[in-house]
Amino acid sequence: MAKLYFHYSTMNAGKSTVLLQASYNYRERGMDTYVMTAGFDDRAGTGTVASRIGISSDADTFTSGEDLFAKVEKRLLDGPVACIFIDESQFLEKDQVWQLARVVDDLNVPVMCYGLRVDFRGELFPGSAALLALADEMREVRTICHCGKKATMVVRMGPDGTALKEGAQVQIGGNETYVSLCRRHWRDAVGHQ
Amino acid sequence: MAKLYFHYSTMNAGKSTVLLQASYNYRERGMDTYVMTAGFDDRAGTGTVASRIGISSDADTFTSGEDLFAKVEKRLLDGPVACIFIDESQFLEKDQVWQLARVVDDLNVPVMCYGLRVDFRGELFPGSAALLALADEMREVRTICHCGKKATMVVRMGPDGTALKEGAQVQIGGNETYVSLCRRHWRDAVGHQ
Amino acid sequence: MAKLYFHYSTMNAGKSTVLLQASYNYRERGMDTYVMTAGFDDRAGTGTVASRIGISSDADTFTSGEDLFAKVEKRLLDGPVACIFIDESQFLEKDQVWQLARVVDDLNVPVMCYGLRVDFRGELFPGSAALLALADEMREVRTICHCGKKATMVVRMGPDGTALKEGAQVQIGGNETYVSLCRRHWRDAVGHQ
Amino acid sequence: MAKLYFHYSTMNAGKSTVLLQASYNYRERGMDTYVMTAGFDDRAGTGTVASRIGISSDADTFTSGEDLFAKVEKRLLDGPVACIFIDESQFLEKDQVWQLARVVDDLNVPVMCYGLRVDFRGELFPGSAALLALADEMREVRTICHCGKKATMVVRMGPDGTALKEGAQVQIGGNETYVSLCRRHWRDAVGHQ
Lengths: 193, 193, 193, 193
Prior knowledge:
The structure is a homotetramer.
Chain A: E1 4-9, H1 15-28, E2 33-38, E3 47-50, E4 56-62, H2 68-76, E5 83-86, H3 94-107, E6 111-116, H4 126-134, E7 137-140, E8 153-157, E9 177-181, H5 183-190
Parallel strand pairs in A: 1-6, 1-7, 2-4, 2-5, 5-6
Antiparallel strand pairs in A: 3-4, 8-9
């Protein structure tokens, strides 16, 4: 009985490490996995899941508007898959989350999604909202704020080292950096109430 | 170190029972709790948290537009509160969830919210979306579909016994009934893909 | 795919309430459950699961040396059971926990056990040790110490109001009372290190 | 408010990866950690935490009879520690688990233990029994059986490829291999009931 999992966290908690270890566990037992991550450019299928701790793996990519149920069905023509892993799942579209739910329910393949819960403004990502609504199991990948408390929020730091309060949810190619914080320190940093 | 908790589930899982037992545990130890539930009419402060299994408790109510940080601060003038419990928390407004987060962070009082994750159309409630974004800990209150699998969805049944597919998220005073289902049986019932 | 669950906690957390609500959820859907609790006397089959909050249910009893696999098989002759609930499961014998594991694996009926983790001396109960070794899923039923922290330990108070440090693990018919505490306050009460 | 954590699993689930990632998260934020693993020989302090996926770290070692409270106090003379990590914690002695509980309660340093739940005979390890009794939070590191279900048991395979049923709990320097299985396949492999 397959399930749809959402492993959520803030930035730099080690989500990709958890994904790569779980995929490794299947492959070590001789079972194949199908790993996907978000693709932000035109090159189809050339992605990487990489972890800050020094491990990585090739991955297929999902892109805007793609039908992931059809994509998985096509992949299954090449042979059985014991588990599907989706990195950067905050970038899934709502329809794509439903397509993955149908993979679970109708094709009986477990789908494990890893992604951010909220962006630097404290707002849910679209993919995260859909996963938080539909996931069969939700598990937190934890990390810590500089104060030692659990970090659940993230700030986007501008070039001058101060936290940005507005801007696009996704920023590609900029020179911002992200820092994970507990809610109280996030509120201090962005001046929230 | 107080936290904001979200105990989520679908209908008829026993959320109110869990809330009442947790509040009872505090009071049995001589610590006071502050219980609130959603108020849908004009009578301020006259609410009840009741469980199908046969236990209930008086409760204060929260209503649209109310500042819950101020409401808690006012309540604290009457004496200390060890824990705040919010039933029907899917009806909280986003601002109210932030106000409760500030109760946790700034007043150091734990807040335990109990509510539905999705409505009968499979959409997040506003309060649930905000709690899924901000809660420090999320815990599922489980129940089962007629097939024995975990139920995570709910259908609203019309007077003729068929599942409704559209309508207002909140329906008061109608004669609909709600049935909790697993995702696959929910999809069958509402004709979703 | 059935599982063996262990819902553990210290005294007075509301384990029986959680059990009764879960059993109620099944019965409300028209599925039968089989509820057992520990029997300490000679009267077979006359037990009660009762919660301090004011709800209760009749229950069958399990006793020392009984084969619970055979007992469940016998019960199934009277009709199907969607879930088996065991209260006071700290009193199960190790062999009985294995028998329940076989009920799960071979008869495909889920078994939900509710019990204490440690006794007043901080030692595992035999049934809890076996369940902590074998359970497929472990979930904590939480309660609080008088200091507001989570309670995980319990003291047995003698008639003079001081914590007992030695004695039988199970005391029936005495006039001791039990108080749940966090580990630090338990250590203070019993003079542990 | 520090806590004692027990991350339990069967063999080859990736416990060491989870440990190394968590320690990395602290160090990346400029906070020091203290990593220990079981030492089985006479060379003090020369250990390694290594993961099958290809990451590793030097570690101090704990050995039989050592006072871990004193060991941590000594370490703290060299500077503050934000979190203590213990690999192979199934080999802790019961007294050592209590010493770590005192580190948590009295020195306010969180301690995260990673270890096996049961040995190849299905019996709790001493360290695991003590941690399952005393841990403030228990989290499972999951892996899968060859059948795709969660593995919770482990078999020790002899040189001839059959599962061993008896023998010492700890075997050093032999040429056995370990395979993680679900309970049903473990029972088949070892001929249990």
